[in-house]
Amino acid sequence: MSYASPLHSGQQLGQDALTEMARRSVGLMATGARADFDAVYHPDFCNREASAEPPETRGRGPAAAWATARWLRGSYADLRWTVTQVFGRDDLAVVCASMAGQHTGDVVFYDAQGRVDRVFPATGSPFEVDQVHFCRLRDGLVVEHWAVRDDLGQATQLGWFPPSPGYLWRCFRATRRARRNAR
Hints:
alpha+beta; Nuclear Transport Factor 2, Chain: A; five-stranded mixed β-sheet; 7 strands; disordered N terminus
């Protein structure tokens, strides 16, 4: 189902609608269906955090946001965001949240050319980290996203850092396998 925004280009959302749309965009990553992404993300949507994600996440529009959700869901079970505060002004909303889940699938990171850079194989470990998401809206939809995340805290909780010799070996083998499968 497609969403037609009641706003025309250049109109501002009220603060409540602005913050609710930003809150919704963060939560969709864990539980939203493909059609939900069309209802929340603008056709020109750009995720400024996609540089190490799969190539299909680096595009524009709801399909790129959906690709990010699929990538995260493939790596983490019981994925969820708990929103603690949301602020909004003009066309920008800030969402303070914690992200939690369990590392049950390989996390594959990519280089600037879209090739497999490194893989962190599943550890089975749970994690919970704080994040701040910035969402710019246009025409009532999220058109831009960037974030500040506790990646080191997440890596530590998941056993990626500091890595044990055995886990380094598993990373090497998983990376080699992913590169071979990408060819």
